[in-house]
């Protein structure tokens, strides 16, 4: 027998018999996460029921649209980096059938323009996108055609802000790429300019993968520099010597980044900048060589890999939301993401975004005590009266009828109405006594 213990919320005050007044719901806490592992990305795609091939096409087309509009509006490359990061996170947290990939890409660029202080109106971005698709029929940004799409972009802006958790920190590998190439090859070398041009184009192609939301800036830059050196067959020793002298260099992360880039160049050769410059067999040979190095060291292809999480069945968003937004549930396998924030708005309480993960964790642990049901178990011996024996069971024990036809020839029908209704049955009179 279980009995619930005293709830701390129901504790009495000043010895009074009346319960304490219950305050408002503490709400739900969400803390931004700058990095995601490969297994988490696959899990989110699986939970959203995404087709891998279709998702790859949407990702490539969305990034290409952001790049084309960015060049048309002459926006800096840091705006492109921020927009692609927001686009990847948005696509991971929302189903592909809910919003068009083009609307999500343009909305991500719209938010990135505000974050990077290169402000453009939503109609300017829509007009640039329309004019790129229809160069023979250009329209001005103040055309009435963009009124309805402009409202859609503004509506998606709120969802993107919730997706990133109002954390506007982003990474710009191009700035560090310039410094690393100068340190490795020197400033005035003519060969370093061609090397940098190739590495810069590869750095743009890198945003067509999920690398920017998985790796740090230094890991991305070192992967681009080393892969460029392997592709051009030059300065590989100098790059490795520079990497060995850096304390923050992580070989496993760089190896995973290079293999992700090679997967992009092998599978989507014509959708990249470098793919038009280098033969496909070159990328395949480099990929075989890197995979051989991984096999020789017996290291996994991806960092922080979990086989159990990969084969686990996908759970619906409603179940995820119910478990992850509960303050008492402290053992969630996956962090709270945009799909959960969207559903939590309709529940009791407010969704709050906290930048410090430690502060969010401490607050959640404090609040969870008030949502926890504690029980104390007691063993009680109870004497139950023995019920009287059933009359039909007694008749069966004495060899009477068995609920069906009788053996003595009176052909009574069985079933629920086939029993005796008295002490005896007289055949001659045809009635009961």
From TrEMBL:
One of its GO terms (molecular function) is cyclin-dependent protein serine/threonine kinase regulator activity. InterPro entries: Cyclin-like_dom (IPR013763), Cyclin-like_sf (IPR036915), Cyclin/Ssn8 (IPR043198), Cyclin_N (IPR006671). It comes from the Eukaryota. Transmembrane segments: none annotated. GO terms for biological process: regulation of transcription by RNA polymerase II. Coiled coil: none annotated. Residues 424-433 have a biased composition (Basic residues). Residues 64-162 form the Cyclin-like domain. Residues 1-32, 378-433 are annotated as: Disordered. Keywords: Cyclin. PANTHER family: CYCLIN. Belongs to the cyclin family. Cyclin C subfamily. This is RNA polymerase II holoenzyme cyclin-like subunit.
């Amino acid at each position: 027998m279980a009995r619930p213990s005293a709830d701390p919320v129901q504790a009495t005050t000043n010895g009074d018999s009346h319960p304490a007044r219950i305050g408002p719901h503490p709400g739900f806490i969400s803390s931004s996460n700058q990095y995601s592992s490969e297994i988490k990305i696959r899990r989110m795609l699986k939970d959203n029921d995404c087709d891998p091939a279709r998702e790859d096409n949407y990702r490539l087309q969305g990034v290409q649209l952001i790049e084309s509009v960015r060049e048309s509006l002459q926006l800096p490359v840091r705006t492109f980096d921020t927009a692609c990061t927001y686009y990847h996170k948005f696509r991971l947290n929302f189903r592909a059938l809910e919003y068009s990939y083009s609307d999500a890409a343009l909305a991500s660029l719209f938010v990135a323009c505000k974050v990077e202080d290169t402000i453009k109106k939503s109609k300017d971005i829509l007009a640039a996108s329309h004019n790129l698709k229809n160069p023979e029929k250009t329209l001005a940004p103040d055309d009435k055609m963009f009124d309805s799409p402009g409202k859609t972009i503004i509506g998606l802006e709120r969802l993107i802000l919730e997706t990133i958790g109002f954390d506007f920190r982003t990474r710009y590998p191009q700035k560090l790429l310039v410094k690393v190439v100068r340190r490795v090859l020197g400033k005035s070398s003519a060969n370093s300019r061609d090397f940098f041009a190739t590495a810069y184009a590869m750095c743009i192609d890198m945003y067509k993968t999920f690398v920017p939301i998985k790796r740090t800036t230094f890991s991305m830059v070192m992967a681009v520099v080393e892969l460029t050196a392997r592709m051009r067959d030059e300065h590989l020793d100098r790059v490795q010597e520079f990497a060995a002298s850096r304390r923050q260099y992580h070989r496993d992360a760089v190896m995973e980044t290079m293999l992700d880039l090679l997967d992009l160049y092998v599978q989507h050769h014509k959708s990249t900048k470098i793919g038009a410059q280098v033969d496909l067999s070159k990328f395949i040979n480099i990929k075989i060589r890197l995979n051989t190095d991984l096999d020789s060291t017996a290291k996994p292809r991806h960092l922080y890999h979990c086989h159990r999480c990969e084969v686990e069945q996908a759970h619906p968003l409603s179940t995820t939301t119910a478990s992850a937004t509960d303050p008492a549930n402290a053992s969630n396998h996956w962090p709270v993401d945009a799909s959960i924030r969207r559903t939590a708005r309709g529940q009791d309480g407010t969704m709050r975004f906290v930048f410090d993960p430690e502060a969010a964790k401490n607050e959640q642990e404090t609040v969870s005590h008030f949502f926890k049901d504690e029980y104390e178990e007691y063993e009680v011996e109870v004497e139950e009266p023995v019920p009287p024996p059933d009359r039909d069971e007694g008749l069966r024990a004495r060899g009477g009828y068995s609920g069906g036809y009788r053996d003595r020839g009176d052909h009574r029908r069985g079933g629920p109405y086939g029993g005796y209704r008295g002490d005896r049955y007289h055949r001659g009179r045809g009635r009961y006594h």
